[in-house]
Amino acid sequence: MSALGNLDRAGRPRSPATMPGYHAGRPPANKGRRYPADPPRVEEIVAVMRQAGESSYGPACAG
Hints:
The protein has helices at 2-5, 42-52, 58-62. By secondary structure, it is mostly helical.
């Protein structure tokens, strides 16, 4: 079973990082970092809405 468990569907060997428990006990690389919200400005939203226009996709963008 171990030989089959280490192969992907195409028969290639799997990376050890894809196996369960490989990163167990290790803190995430981004632990403790803060990523502040960066919402789009009103001008950017208006530009996107104008670019969408009145096509069939436009109303879908409008919500």
